[in-house]
Fold this sequence. Notes:
The complex is a heterotrimer.
Chain A: H1 12-21, H2 26-36, E1 46-51, H3 57-67, E2 72-76, H4 83-95, H5 109-122, E3 129-134, H6 146-151, H7 153-157, E4 161-167, E5 184-188, H8 193-202, H9 210-224, H10 231-250, H11 259-275, H12 284-292, H13 313-327, H14 333-337, H15 358-361, E6 366-367, H16 368-378, H17 387-398, E7 402-405, E8 415-418, H18 422-431
Parallel strand pairs in A: 1-4, 1-5, 2-3, 3-4
Antiparallel strand pairs in A: 6-8, 7-8
Helix pairs in contact in A: 1-3, 4-5, 8-9, 9-10, 9-11, 10-11, 13-16, 13-17
Chain B: E1 12-16, E2 23-25, E3 30-33, E4 36-40, E5 46-49, E6 54-57, E7 66-75, E8 82-91, E9 111-115, E10 123-125, E11 129-132, E12 134-137, E13 152-159, E14 164-166, H1 169-172, H2 192-204, H3 211-229, H4 231-258, H5 264-275, H6 284-305, H7 318-336, H8 338-347, H9 352-356, H10 359-374, H11 381-386, H12 390-408, H13 412-434, H14 442-450, H15 453-472, H16 482-496, H17 502-515, H18 528-532, H19 560-568, H20 581-596, E15 601-607, H21 613-629, E16 636-642, H22 651-660, H23 667-679, E17 687-693, H24 704-711, E18 720-726, H25 731-735, H26 738-744, E19 748-751, H27 756-766, H28 775-788, H29 792-809, H30 821-832, H31 836-842, H32 845-861, E20 865-867, H33 868-882, H34 889-901, E21 905-907, E22 917-920, H35 924-935
Parallel strand pairs in B: 9-13, 12-13, 15-18, 15-19, 16-17, 17-18
Antiparallel strand pairs in B: 1-4, 2-3, 3-7, 4-5, 6-7, 6-11, 7-8, 8-9, 8-10, 13-14, 20-22, 21-22
Helix pairs in contact in B: 2-7, 3-15, 4-14, 4-15, 5-10, 5-12, 5-13, 6-13, 7-10, 8-10, 13-14, 15-16, 16-17, 19-29, 20-21, 22-23, 24-26, 27-28, 28-29, 28-30, 29-30, 31-35, 32-33, 32-35
Chain C: H1 2-9, H2 11-28, H3 41-57, E1 61-66, H4 73-86, H5 88-93, E2 95-100, H6 107-118, E3 123-124, E4 127-128, H7 132-145, E5 154-159, H8 161-164, H9 171-180, E6 187-193, H10 198-201, H11 204-209, E7 214-216, H12 223-234, H13 243-258, H14 260-272, H15 276-289, H16 299-310, H17 313-319, H18 323-338, H19 346-359, H20 369-381, E8 385-387, E9 402-404, H21 408-417, H22 423-430
Parallel strand pairs in C: 1-6, 1-7, 2-5, 5-6
Antiparallel strand pairs in C: 3-4, 8-9
Amino acid sequence: MPGQIQHPGYEEEKLLRVSKLLPCRDVQAGRLLALMGEPEQYSYPSIFIYGHRATGKSHVLHTLLNELELPYATVSCVECLSLGLLFQKIILSLFGSDCVPLLPRSPSLSDFVRVYKQLCVQSTAKQTKYIVLDRADLLRDMEANILPAFLRLQELVEDNVTVVLLSEIVWEKFRPNTGCFEPLLLHFPDYSKDELQQIMCEDSHPSYTSELYSAFINILLGVFYSVCRDLRELRHLAALNFFKFIEPLEKDEVKESDIHRLWRNIEPHLKKAMQTVYLREVSSVQWEQQQMAEKEAGALRGLSAHAHVELPYYSKFLLIAAYLASYNPARTDKRFFVKHHGKIKKNNFLKKHEKTSNHLLGPKPFPLDRLLAVFYSVVDSRVAPTASVFSQISSLVTLQLLSQLGHDDQLDAPKYKCAVSLDFIQAISRTVSFDIVKYLYDFL
Amino acid sequence: MVGYFTRLRVRRVYRWGRRQPTSFHRKLNTFYFDSLTISVDGQPGITTVNPGDYVLIEGDDDDYPFVAKILEFFNDETHNQKMAQVQWFIRWCELPHKNKKLLGRSPHPHEVFYYLGHSCDNEINAESILSTVQVQHIPASAPFPESPTRDTLYVKLSWDTKTFKELDPALMQDTLVPASPPPRPKPFPHCSPPTASLLSRAGRSLPTPDPMVMRRAGSAVPARVTMSAGKMGTNEAESVHSAAKLSASKTLSAKRRGRTAVTPGVRKKLQLSLSASPEKGMTGEEVLCELLDEEVESEKVLAIKLNSSPPRSLQHGYSLCNMSSGRKPPSLLGQVSLTPYSINLDRLSPSALGEQDSSRDMMLGVAPLLLEDEVFEAALPTDTGFANTPKKRQATPRRKYFTGQKATTPSRRKDSSVMREPALGVLAEEDAENSPMQPVAMTPRSKRKSAQLVASRIRKQLDLLDSTQDLSDEDDCYVPSKKQLQSSSEEEMEEEEAAECEETRVRKTRGRIIKAPATPARTPRKTPSKKATPSTPRTPRDAIPSIPSRTLPARQPGNILEEARARLHVSSVPESLPCREQEFQDIYNFVESKVMDGTGGCMYISGVPGTGKTATVHEVIRCLQHASDIDEIPTFRFIEINGMKMTDPHQAYVQILQKLTDQKATADHAAALLEKRFSNSAPRKETTVLLVDELDLLWTRKQNVMYNLFDWPTRRHARLVVLTIANTMDLPERIMINRVASRLGLTRMSFQPYSFKQLQQIITSRLNKVKAFEEDALQLVSRKVAALSGDARRCLDICRRATEICEHSASLPSSTGLVGMSHVMEALDEMFSSSYITAIRCASVQEQLFLRAILAEFRRLGLEEATFQQVFVQHQALCRVEGLQPISTSEGLAVCQRLGACRLLLLESSRLDVLQRVRLNVSQDDVLYALKVDRD
Amino acid sequence: MSKRKAKKTHMTVGACISQVQTILRERFCHQMLPEKPVGMESQYKHLLELLKRTAVHGESNSVLIVGPRGSGKTMLLKCVLRELLEVTEVKKNVLQVHLHGLLQTDDRIALKEITRQLNLENVVGDKVFGSFAENLAFLLEALKKGDRSNSRPVFFILDEFDLFAHHKNQTLLYNLLDVSQSAQAPIAVIGLTCRLDVLELLEKRVKSRFSHRQIQLLSSLSFGKYLDNVISQLGLPQDFPDTKFSEEWNDSIKRLCEDKAVMAVLQKQYNSSKDFRSLHMLLILTLSQVSVSNPSIKPADLLEASRVCGADSKANMLHGLSILELCLIIAMKHLNDIYDGEPFNFQMVYNEFKKFLQRKSHSIYNFDKPVIMKAFEHLQQLELIRSMEGSTANIQKDYQLMKLMLDHNQVMECLQKYPQCPTDVKQWAMSAFG
């Protein structure tokens, strides 16, 4: 089935090699090649290829251009913080390093085109040149004229050049306001599950049978496929977890055939991996070390669950107070915090049903004095309103646990918001044995 | 018919008709005579002139001698001067250039106007009478008779320096001698005897008039005909003459006072000598007033002495020898002293006289003057001509110094200008006492009038040359540039020079000619090379801005339509701007007065584009330039900057500085230099007229550029006139801070948009006589444009387009050659109809659907705005209604953004794709209309 | 070696095909000008005569060519120039200056470019000396020195004219147009733009100097014409080496265009836009399918091509989402339905999703919040959802207000196409309020 890419313009061997390098992308490669046509033939001025991350956009393109030895320049717009850089890269890889100095300092587009033209006149190569711009969506943030100009570069430089834009964002979001030369749109669909399996199986571990490995991949996909279809990510995870997977085999606890036990062995690790490595909350190095040290597998937890931010005692209360202040309506404070309110009929406080709870809408800002009031009522021992309290507030702000609204200039009545999640505040309040949920209006 | 021989070429002998005076005026002790006989030697017969006859009086131009009617003859108290009281008639060509518009029609070549002005006195030296002439009065309505002979002139109207009036025949009847001739100055003692003797000596060496001169005079006549054919040529020529005449009369009256200035040449010398003083570092004004004072005193003295002066017996033959002194030079020129002549020519080369005067002027002015310079103590006869007044004596050393100066100073313009100012003083004074009743406003004019002797002579020469030019090459009838004139004037002179001295002089003159245009002050425009060469230190030295010239010549307009198109092109400069006379006059007077009395000022001109602001100002400047060329006004330099033509407001300084003095500087430095230049006084500084176009572009936050521009004129020594142009009437109020606005002052003028009549007039005047348009077609255009913008450019463009359309349809059998209604209509809606509706009609089905969807959605929301998402729902629905298969969102967006690209829709950034808000850029009705028409 | 054999077997065909490819590609990439621009004869005439007058009579002019994208403005101009330059009288005289709004983004650059192209004296090699101000002065001087009859006429061709109108003070335009309206070197200013409202962009003094000539390229050509044009676009020229092949080819094209399905496709194309550029895109896609194995255009190819062109890119993207992300999208869709189109934040979405899980989810087990957040962020990267606040300064990211940039039915369609989509998710999506 490889080798179905055919084109009169190129030798069969090359094409074969190409199609070997491009598993599961024959269709796209074939279409692309067909569009490119024979080396001397004109190709459409600009081609826009979009598709999800790691669906082989740039890979296919590069393999084609490389293997078929076509003149091309490939630039990732992420790397080009200045236009000059972009132009230099293009000139460099199309015409060689000695041509770069032709560009003036901080070249404008018109300089680039001029230089390009005069270089074209010198070089007699008739082959179609290709300029591949990766992460093209960043072009939109450059000067307004860049994107349209690249789209019609063929016309501007009067040379047989084709610009290929790669992006994972759809074309509609690129169109400038006064329109432009419409590029030819190509979509790279994502890999299906089987294709993923097939591709991932190709980097199987030499010392183990490919069946075993594919089984492993199968398990891995079973866990991750529903969350992530990014080939790169999956391969990374596979690489990280394979050794954990084959541990039992190392220890000869299980047969290679006994996939089920292996699965029971690896599955929790994979789950954990999803909460940690996948989220980049743990570096892969940490992860591996932790894999080696078997026992306290439970010890390592992602940042998400971290309640162990060490805060001063009062700071914790301040934070709690802030949380209460920003998630409870002010009118309910009396009910929550007034100490000796005689007997209050419960039903008074049955909250009238509101459409959305504050925990959906997010924290409300509150004035400083309200914070203090709540603070004094929640903290059990008497605290004098000393400077230390205020300094702690400001330090909480610097820790970005609180966020101060408005500008710093309104010193008199600053407003704050609490910027921590419910889990976090619960963890905090647990450390000071304060049952916050009782005080939260949403949870009555 | 040959030109009139002035006594320069033939000698005329003047005698009183009867020896005895008819009457004697005791108080003035003057004798009155009843006739004058003029005998021209070389010609048989004697002309007798009686009071009431019309005579030609020698002016500076032999081809257009002045016309006057003799009222009486008398001799002055010294009895050695034949005088005549005259009523002037003014020729068309003598009218001031700028007043010519006032005569509605084109003048008859032999038409003269009864002169009612006061600015030239009506006593002349009888010896300046050339011959008699017929003057017929014709009622204004009547046509001029055909086949005019040269000797009869026709008078229809009278001219009082302001307007033309119907002339009532009564004036033309022989009028009585006015009761009292105006007082005449008392003679100085000690004049005649030496003069007489010397002159008699001079008398002996009289030459016979040299034949070449005769021939040339002959040739001049056909020349004039062609000349009058050439447009510009005549214009220049004429106003020159006008000045010339008036000044000549001044000359004559001045003679009596100067007592010696028998010939204009001598007279001129007087001026020169006087004017020499500024060379001694005094500014023009100072000299001026000084002179004025001394004049005043002298007048007083005279007035007192008047009646006490005893009668004298007149001396015959004086006039003869007197004139001989006038005729002396040719001989010298002719054979005697070539060497001194040629020498001092190049010594004097930059001087006002040496250069362009014809041989005649040489004889009169230059030669004597020079001779006095060069061979002073070698007492040549002519020398005596000047040697009588103390003034003169004291003058001579000065002038020697002066000429020495001149030899060194490169540009003749500068000194000549300086040189004239004092003269102004004298004459202004005379004038004041000649006609005390005249309005003050006139004085500047008359000053100027009388200041022109020199240049008028020059000019007259130019005209001849001009005409000869025309003879030589018929095809181009534009006025030859200064260079050509000079060079060819040289040729003229060479003709008259003896052969051997030619080439030397040629070289000299050529050398000078090269230098001539090198004075940037004159006209920066004419000499761009000067401005460009110092363009930048880094530019290659030889960087001269120029578009390469074409290899094949441009084709001239072939048929009448092309001709019309060429004329209608905005760029084709009309010889006069119709419909802007008033504005023209105002600006002219403003600038002129400022230039005259060397003060400064600002003027703010506003008006919507295409109402001829800049054009008018340029016209004014052109007239003024030309006026200063003929020395009606002191020279000034004109500088133009345009806010749009500079990259940044502060460049204004750089440009101004560069145009003033060819130096380059950074903006700040330039500002400093200009500041200095305008704030402290420099001798011989001429007025600068600065035109600032597109003023609003010079706006800076601190407004210092504007501030300076308006502040400099207020400086005492600046002599800067600033004309600013902008589109908006209330610019000062809107963008200027007070200190700037206040300096701008209140001299404002706003150009109203042209009315349709004016537009029509403009087109017709442009087309003049090229019959390419039907009347109503023009009407339509001008009405339409007037209704829309009143922009003349638009009007012309439309007409041009119409001619093209006409040309296309010319193939049709129906078409007359003319541009008709239909063509104009087509042109009009090509230019004015909005393309939106056509665009909608030509849009693709989906695009039209989308527009309809938008309308529907707007109606639903009751808003003028909707998100694409909302509209697209409607669109899908419409698709189903129309039975088209619904398009995908991407395609929908594509359609939407296509419409947005050609601005039928207004869209937000495409980043928020389905959320972007959509608005119509056309009125909903237009869309409906377009779509509905599209439907059926 | 197999290749060489292949070549032998259908030598001619292979050669012919590659010939065809070469020719047609050049045509579709707008490299080859048509012999005569179709459907714009009058405009052609107008422009031609206008420029001829400038070139021959030295009459200055200014004109705007206005037409939507891809309506052939540049093509028209190129054709006119081509014909014009065949006249030697013109060829010898005319200078051309080509400026492009996209390249010359401000007057400084534009001036340098003009000076360079006119090759004035202050150009050495391709370096232009002098500051901006000096260049301007220099150019104006040069133009001013010229006059109608003696200096070579210059064509100033301003592509994307509207962009020049955005330069500071419109200095360049003012000066060019001013020259074109005054007795200086004869120039023709030709502006190309797709904006119908371009005149409103001009400052009034600039506008007044522009001779309001507009050549509008608004093609109202019928579908019949369109079809003919398609045929002519695909057809091979007379001078094609292998006549036999070219005849066959042209016949096949004719047959192709009679095909019903093809008709339908073209009709659709025509409906969506009449310009030829979009057509060319379609055709080059079709053409690319032509190969030795498939030596003529089949209707199928055209259909495929139009499918590729007309595909909804968003749907394509949705297809690639993970099931989790898809669920989030569905949750958002529900939120949109509930609070019609009000923005939502992550908490709400999360809440919706949770509710769904609690109610009935056999297929999808619970993910903890960060994982979901990551999915949410991925959607944001794909710009399928967009944050409403400009600055995300001191707002927790799970409370940022978002909007979904998808259509209701886009979501539904994608669900249909989605590979092995769990039924309960489908039902959830179908169900009215979450």
